[in-house]
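User: Hey, quick favor. My workstation is busy. Could you predict this chain's structure for me?
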Amino acid sequence: MKHEDLTRRIIGAAMEVHRYLGNGFQEVVYQRALSIELNLQGIAHEREKEMSLQYKGHDIGTRRVDFFVDEKIMVEIKALINLEDVHLAQAMNYVEAYNMDIGLLINFGAKSLQFKRVHNNTPKQSRNQANQQNQG
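Assistant: No problem, here it is.
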């Protein structure tokens, strides 16, 4: 699996945050704590990175990604009692919209940490060809 070691390290950092804080806090608390833990573990990341969204080569707005790790992995965090299909669909859409290979959806709100690896099912070459065709 692509970036398996890095995703494992991110999940490990999230587990440490959840072990230390438990559940029940607002999302921003976990976001701050995860940023600290990623720094402590030497994992390069940007928090709340604003990224542009495009439709057929045209800018249609921006969206803040909770974490952009090592310029390779998008991490979306939640603090909900339970993840639902809509949250997974949202993370999958972000991975495809940002042309990423993989992302993580992490939920700190449950009694046990929940996480999902999200893969982009559209090969990068196909996405680039589609974008070029739509622009021309």
